Amino acid sequence: MKLYHLSTGPLKVNTYFLVNENNKAIVIDSGENYNLIKKTAKEKGFTLEYALYTHGHFDHAGNAKKLQDDGVKIVISKIDAKKLSNDDNLSKHFGRNFDYLTPDVTFYDGEVLNLCGIEIKALITPGHTDGSACFIVDNNIFSGDTLFLESVGRTDFPSGNRDMLVKSVKRLFALDGDYNVLPGHDDFTTLSHERKYNILNEYD
Ligand SMILES: [Zn+2]
Prior knowledge:
Elements: E1 2-8, E2 13-19, E3 24-28, H1 34-44, E4 47-52, H2 58-61, H3 64-69, E5 73-77, E6 105-107, E7 112-115, E8 118-124, E9 133-137, E10 140-144, E11 147-148, E12 151-152, H4 162-173, E13 180-183, E14 189-190, H5 191-197
Parallel strand pairs: 3-4, 4-5, 5-6, 10-13
Antiparallel strand pairs: 1-2, 2-3, 7-8, 8-9, 9-10, 11-12, 13-14
This protein binds zinc ion (ZN).
Protein backbone atom coordinates (compact mmCIF):
# COMPACT_ATOMS: atom_id res chain seq x y z
CA MET A 1 0.00 0.00 0.00
CA LYS A 2 1.17 3.51 -0.84
CA LEU A 3 0.12 6.53 1.18
CA TYR A 4 -0.03 10.07 -0.23
CA HIS A 5 -0.94 13.30 1.51
CA LEU A 6 -2.26 16.65 0.26
CA SER A 7 -3.36 19.77 2.08
CA THR A 8 -6.62 20.88 0.43
CA GLY A 9 -9.02 23.80 0.41
CA PRO A 10 -9.05 27.12 2.25
CA LEU A 11 -9.28 25.38 5.63
CA LYS A 12 -6.25 23.22 4.80
CA VAL A 13 -7.76 19.81 5.33
CA ASN A 14 -5.36 16.90 5.27
CA THR A 15 -6.47 14.64 2.43
CA TYR A 16 -4.92 11.17 2.30
CA PHE A 17 -4.81 8.57 -0.44
CA LEU A 18 -4.31 4.86 0.21
CA VAL A 19 -3.34 3.10 -3.00
CA ASN A 20 -3.16 -0.69 -3.40
CA GLU A 21 -0.79 -2.68 -5.62
CA ASN A 22 -3.30 -2.55 -8.51
CA ASN A 23 -3.50 1.26 -8.34
CA LYS A 24 -7.01 1.25 -6.89
CA ALA A 25 -7.34 3.94 -4.27
CA ILE A 26 -9.24 5.20 -1.27
CA VAL A 27 -9.27 8.90 -0.47
CA ILE A 28 -9.74 9.87 3.18
CA ASP A 29 -11.37 13.30 3.65
CA SER A 30 -11.40 14.42 0.02
CA GLY A 31 -11.88 18.06 1.05
CA GLU A 32 -13.51 20.79 -1.00
CA ASN A 33 -11.35 20.88 -4.11
CA TYR A 34 -12.65 18.40 -6.70
CA ASN A 35 -10.22 19.27 -9.49
CA LEU A 36 -7.17 18.79 -7.30
CA ILE A 37 -8.35 15.29 -6.33
CA LYS A 38 -8.90 14.33 -9.98
CA LYS A 39 -5.55 15.82 -10.99
CA THR A 40 -3.70 13.96 -8.23
CA ALA A 41 -5.28 10.64 -9.22
CA LYS A 42 -4.27 11.21 -12.83
CA GLU A 43 -0.71 12.28 -12.01
CA LYS A 44 -0.07 9.38 -9.64
CA GLY A 45 -1.83 6.92 -11.95
CA PHE A 46 -4.49 5.52 -9.62
CA THR A 47 -8.24 5.04 -9.84
CA LEU A 48 -10.35 6.28 -6.97
CA GLU A 49 -12.84 3.65 -5.80
CA TYR A 50 -13.82 4.87 -2.33
CA ALA A 51 -14.01 8.17 -0.47
CA LEU A 52 -13.93 7.66 3.28
CA TYR A 53 -14.82 10.44 5.72
CA THR A 54 -13.79 11.00 9.33
CA HIS A 55 -16.90 13.16 9.76
CA GLY A 56 -19.48 15.08 7.77
CA HIS A 57 -18.18 18.67 7.92
CA PHE A 58 -18.04 20.53 4.60
CA ASP A 59 -14.29 21.16 4.69
CA HIS A 60 -13.72 17.39 4.74
CA ALA A 61 -16.61 16.23 2.52
CA GLY A 62 -17.39 19.26 0.33
CA ASN A 63 -16.67 17.49 -2.98
CA ALA A 64 -18.24 14.13 -2.05
CA LYS A 65 -21.26 14.49 -4.36
CA LYS A 66 -19.08 15.17 -7.39
CA LEU A 67 -16.91 12.17 -6.60
CA GLN A 68 -20.02 10.03 -6.14
CA ASP A 69 -21.29 11.17 -9.53
CA ASP A 70 -18.01 9.85 -10.96
CA GLY A 71 -18.72 6.42 -9.45
CA VAL A 72 -16.62 6.75 -6.30
CA LYS A 73 -18.34 4.99 -3.36
CA ILE A 74 -18.91 7.29 -0.39
CA VAL A 75 -18.25 5.84 3.07
CA ILE A 76 -19.03 7.53 6.40
CA SER A 77 -20.25 6.55 9.88
CA LYS A 78 -23.94 5.78 10.21
CA ILE A 79 -24.28 8.73 12.61
CA ASP A 80 -22.54 11.36 10.47
CA ALA A 81 -24.18 10.17 7.24
CA LYS A 82 -27.10 12.54 7.84
CA LYS A 83 -24.74 15.54 7.92
CA LEU A 84 -24.18 15.01 4.18
CA SER A 85 -27.77 16.12 3.65
CA ASN A 86 -28.39 18.71 6.36
CA ASP A 87 -26.96 21.95 7.75
CA ASP A 88 -24.87 20.17 10.37
CA ASN A 89 -22.10 19.92 7.76
CA LEU A 90 -21.57 23.67 8.55
CA SER A 91 -21.44 24.73 4.89
CA LYS A 92 -24.13 27.41 5.41
CA HIS A 93 -22.40 28.62 8.56
CA PHE A 94 -19.21 29.20 6.52
CA GLY A 95 -21.03 30.45 3.39
CA ARG A 96 -20.09 27.48 1.19
CA ASN A 97 -22.02 25.47 -1.37
CA PHE A 98 -22.57 21.86 -0.46
CA ASP A 99 -24.27 19.36 -2.79
CA TYR A 100 -26.31 16.99 -0.62
CA LEU A 101 -25.86 13.27 -1.05
CA THR A 102 -26.66 9.90 0.49
CA PRO A 103 -23.58 7.78 1.20
CA ASP A 104 -23.14 4.33 -0.37
CA VAL A 105 -21.69 2.61 2.69
CA THR A 106 -22.03 3.38 6.41
CA PHE A 107 -20.25 1.77 9.35
CA TYR A 108 -20.52 1.33 13.10
CA ASP A 109 -17.96 1.45 15.90
CA GLY A 110 -15.36 -1.27 15.67
CA GLU A 111 -16.22 -2.36 12.15
CA VAL A 112 -13.35 -3.55 9.98
CA LEU A 113 -13.84 -2.30 6.45
CA ASN A 114 -12.13 -3.98 3.54
CA LEU A 115 -11.84 -1.41 0.75
CA CYS A 116 -9.63 -2.11 -2.28
CA GLY A 117 -8.22 -5.04 -0.30
CA ILE A 118 -7.02 -2.66 2.42
CA GLU A 119 -8.20 -3.37 5.98
CA ILE A 120 -9.43 -0.33 7.82
CA LYS A 121 -10.61 -0.50 11.41
CA ALA A 122 -13.20 2.20 12.12
CA LEU A 123 -13.57 3.56 15.63
CA ILE A 124 -16.42 5.92 16.37
CA THR A 125 -14.85 8.68 18.46
CA PRO A 126 -17.63 11.17 19.22
CA GLY A 127 -16.89 14.66 20.52
CA HIS A 128 -16.03 16.91 17.58
CA THR A 129 -19.26 15.57 16.04
CA ASP A 130 -21.42 12.76 17.41
CA GLY A 131 -20.45 10.46 14.54
CA SER A 132 -16.76 11.35 14.13
CA ALA A 133 -14.54 8.40 13.35
CA CYS A 134 -10.86 7.49 13.44
CA PHE A 135 -9.45 4.92 11.06
CA ILE A 136 -6.65 2.51 11.88
CA VAL A 137 -4.67 1.21 8.91
CA ASP A 138 -1.48 -0.71 9.75
CA ASN A 139 0.41 1.53 12.19
CA ASN A 140 -1.45 4.71 11.21
CA ILE A 141 -4.41 6.38 12.85
CA PHE A 142 -6.32 8.82 10.65
CA SER A 143 -7.71 10.92 13.45
CA GLY A 144 -9.87 13.49 11.63
CA ASP A 145 -10.78 16.42 13.87
CA THR A 146 -10.66 14.28 17.03
CA LEU A 147 -6.93 14.36 17.82
CA PHE A 148 -4.32 16.88 16.64
CA LEU A 149 -0.67 17.57 17.35
CA GLU A 150 -0.71 18.50 21.07
CA SER A 151 -4.36 19.45 20.70
CA VAL A 152 -7.89 18.15 20.15
CA GLY A 153 -10.87 19.09 18.00
CA ARG A 154 -13.39 21.84 18.67
CA THR A 155 -16.59 20.84 20.40
CA ASP A 156 -18.62 24.01 19.92
CA PHE A 157 -20.32 22.98 16.66
CA PRO A 158 -23.70 21.18 16.42
CA SER A 159 -23.51 17.67 17.98
CA GLY A 160 -20.10 18.46 19.53
CA ASN A 161 -19.55 17.39 23.13
CA ARG A 162 -16.48 18.07 25.25
CA ASP A 163 -16.90 15.15 27.67
CA MET A 164 -17.35 12.74 24.78
CA LEU A 165 -14.24 14.11 23.08
CA VAL A 166 -12.14 13.60 26.21
CA LYS A 167 -13.42 10.03 26.46
CA SER A 168 -12.70 9.37 22.79
CA VAL A 169 -9.14 10.71 22.95
CA LYS A 170 -8.46 8.67 26.07
CA ARG A 171 -9.72 5.62 24.23
CA LEU A 172 -7.10 6.27 21.55
CA PHE A 173 -4.39 6.80 24.18
CA ALA A 174 -5.32 3.41 25.67
CA LEU A 175 -4.55 1.54 22.44
CA ASP A 176 -1.55 -0.79 22.74
CA GLY A 177 1.76 0.40 21.34
CA ASP A 178 2.54 3.38 19.16
CA TYR A 179 0.94 4.69 15.97
CA ASN A 180 1.52 7.50 13.53
CA VAL A 181 -1.30 9.99 14.02
CA LEU A 182 -2.45 11.60 10.75
CA PRO A 183 -4.98 14.28 11.67
CA GLY A 184 -7.59 16.14 9.65
CA HIS A 185 -5.64 19.43 9.84
CA ASP A 186 -2.10 20.54 10.70
CA ASP A 187 1.00 18.49 11.40
CA PHE A 188 1.41 14.76 11.86
CA THR A 189 2.28 13.33 15.25
CA THR A 190 2.47 10.01 17.06
CA LEU A 191 0.33 8.47 19.76
CA SER A 192 3.28 8.25 22.16
CA HIS A 193 3.96 11.98 21.71
CA GLU A 194 0.30 12.80 22.37
CA ARG A 195 0.11 10.61 25.46
CA LYS A 196 2.82 12.89 26.92
CA TYR A 197 2.18 16.32 25.42
CA ASN A 198 -1.47 16.60 24.41
CA ILE A 199 -3.38 19.52 25.87
CA LEU A 200 -5.89 17.07 27.37
CA ASN A 201 -3.31 16.02 29.93
CA GLU A 202 -3.73 19.42 31.53
CA TYR A 203 -7.37 18.56 32.28
CA ASP A 204 -6.56 15.40 34.25
ZN1 LIG B 1 -14.77 19.22 11.52
